Amino acid sequence: MYRAMTLKVLQQGIDIHDKHAIALLADKTEISLEQRNNELQVLLDNNDVTAAIRTQAVTKSVSAVSMVKEVRELMVRAQRKMSERGSIIVEGRDIGTVVFPHADLKFFMVADVHKRAVRRHKELHQQGVDVSIEALVKEIHERDQKDSGRELSPLRKSDDAIEIDTSNLSIEEQVNVIVQKVEEIQQQHT
Hints:
Mean pLDDT: 91
Largest sheet: 3 strands, antiparallel
Strand content: 5-15%
Number of helices: 8
Radius of gyration: 17 Å
């Protein structure tokens, strides 16, 4: 969702450090998530931007845009509204600490920066974008630093979150670990 807002900022030609202009734009922006054809689609003002939000330009700018108070407020409202329809699974850098601090179950996923860069490199390569792994390591490290150090909704692990190191796990293995943890917790409560 933050990537979608960042995409709109970039499309409008707004400086990513112009908090006032971004706040005004956020007020006129609708971002939603929808399940279509067994895939999650990100809609920006009712337009599918699922692929467009994964560009390097968006990735490089998302931390700056997500620091704007009005953007964070818009996203938190939208995310909480989604939960009104029933149980949901949500991921994000402040989901367990700010958006849903009382969620029944929280996971905090970590991975080695180099492994994350290799994954991102593969994703970008599939899009036809050539970026070195070293540049991606630097970019990921800088984004983590910015997000962890920001005053508003910093990236941090909730005290009651279960930490999972995904460095050496495939996506299928990550899902299996989470499902196993959920089943263990359900057994404890029955």
